[in-house]
Amino acid sequence: MAPRGDKMIPNRLEAGIVPNDHVLSAMRIVFWDFDGVIKDSVAVKTVGFEQLFLPYGQEVADRVRQHHEAHGGVSRYKKMPIYLEWAGETATAANIQHFCDRFSSLVQQAVIDAAWVPGVREYLLARHASQYFVLVTATPQQEIEQILRALEIAHCFREVYGAPTPKTEAISRVLQHLKCPSGQALMIGDSETDLEAADANGVSFLLRRTGLNRSLQARYSGPTFDKLNHE
Question: What Å distances lie between residue 40 and 35, 172, 185, CA to CA?
Fold first, then answer.
């Protein structure tokens, strides 16, 4: 596992900004996160959580927003019990599911409508036949499958893993059943959770820079990108 705190976080790939697809094209398998990597949809979910808990007061809503922004890539099923406790609600399985369903109804179409991360859609469509693309996300399985179909990119992914499957487990499972050395695989993400999943499997990491991961950017020495420019 890469060190945390104030230490630089190393990576198996050479550090630097990625101006084209040379980092990606060399890899047999590419694991993609979704929010913040394929669609600029992180803010959409922030708004969704705020709206869901605003009836419990602005202080609760602000606390939920701050926690959500600090824990990108974590499943809503892990976050929701915390938020329910802050709101004075009981975190029973039924109540957690109820609030998760309400959250889904608030954000799903907004995620579909969110802006694409520049260059990503083009790369997916151009290279999905020659590389093995796998989606790993904290979004629930059924929901992400619906989103991918609505965006007409479901065919770009050979495998899709949503919650409740952890990203670390999904990556491990794919590497094992494809008998692929970790050096031939890359994870593209925007959060500490994504980096940890890559590190746990010895997979290289490509960080998408956003306004919410500046702390991670400052500590990470591997390759990064804002727009995925490629030729």
Answer: 6, 27, 24
73 burial type by CB count under 10 A (0-12 exposed, 13-18 middle, 19+ buried): buried
The CA distance from 137 to 78, in Å, is 14
- State CA 53 to chain mean position distance: 23
Domain carrying residue 124:
16-40+115-225
What pLDDT, in 10s, does the model give residues 37-76?
999 999 999 999 999 999 999 999 999 999 998 887 788 9
- Domain ends where: 113, 139, 168? 113
Last residue of a domain, one of 93, 113, 133: 113
Helix (H) or strand (E) holding 97: helix 93-113
Q: Which among 86, 93, 94, 95 has a CA at the least distance from the CA of 68? A: 86
Same domain? 49 vs 125? no
On whether residue 98 sits in a domain, the answer given is yes
92-122: pLDDT as tens digits = 999 999 999 999 999 999 999 999 999 999 9
| Assessment of whether the complete model's pTM goes beyond 0.70 | yes
